[in-house]
Amino acid sequence: MNTQNIYNNKDKDININTNSNTKIKICGLTSPAEARYLNENHVDFAGMVLFFPKSKRNISIEQAKEIVSPSIEQVRQIEAAGFNYIQIHGEIPETEAEAAIAIPILKAFNVSDMGSYEKYHNDSRIAGYVFDAIEPGSGKTFDWKLVDNIPRDEKLLLLAGGLNPDNVRMAIEAVHPNGVDVSSGVENDDGVGKNPEKIHDFVAAIKS
């Protein structure tokens, strides 16, 4: 199953457009303390993994208040919890009930399924795209030149996959995304929890 993250945009009034500065999204939060690290560094998006027990970053919907092809009931729970976006790595079902999903979708693609971009390109539910490595959450990068063939439009384009404080500036200069997405690249060395110094360095590299 493909992992999938749920994202809560901490700034309700954020303007998502191609003319804004590079947006920063840090995913896989597991505690209120980690959310404070993001606030201290003015990070735009906070991400949480829900309904995917295989992930070490998985938390309950109660704690949150990498899903794969979520059920309509799971999506309704996410909407009720007050999230602004749902990011989906799996297929987006086309049943009548699921087509009525109100929460905007960030559709994630990895190296192996970028060809399905056109399938979702004109879907009005899609607020943006996230381009990731073949194994989302693995901390591995991919050939950023693959994104060159993706047509740009008014929707948000985020780059993920193995980003960290040392390579994020290079990634931005190569791809010119609207935003970047990181999880393992700002975690503690033991892979448990987010590291405040790495978060600071990641943000500083982007804003430098």
Describe the structure.
The chain is built from seven helices and nine strands, in the order ββαββααβαβαββαβα. By secondary structure, the chain is an alpha/beta fold. An eight-stranded mixed beta barrel has the order 1-3-2-9-8-7-6-5. Strand 6 (105-109), helix 5 and strand 7 form a beta-alpha-beta unit.
Keywords:
208 residues, alpha/beta, 8-stranded mixed beta barrel, 19% strand
Q: Distance N terminus to C terminus?
A: 38 Å
The amount of beta strand, in percent, is 15-25%
The number of helical elements comes to 7
Parts with pLDDT < 50 across at least 5 consecutive residues: 1-6, 8-20
* Physical arrangement of strands within the biggest beta sheet: 1-3-2-9-8-7-6-5
Short description:
With 208 residues, this protein is an alpha/beta fold. It has seven helices and nine strands.
How do the helices and strands line up, and which of them pair or pack?
Layout: E1 6-9, E2 23-26, H1 32-40, E3 45-50, E4 58-59, H2 61-64, H3 72-80, E5 85-88, H4 96-99, E6 105-109, H5 117-121, E7 126-131, E8 156-159, H6 168-175, E9 179-182, H7 196-207
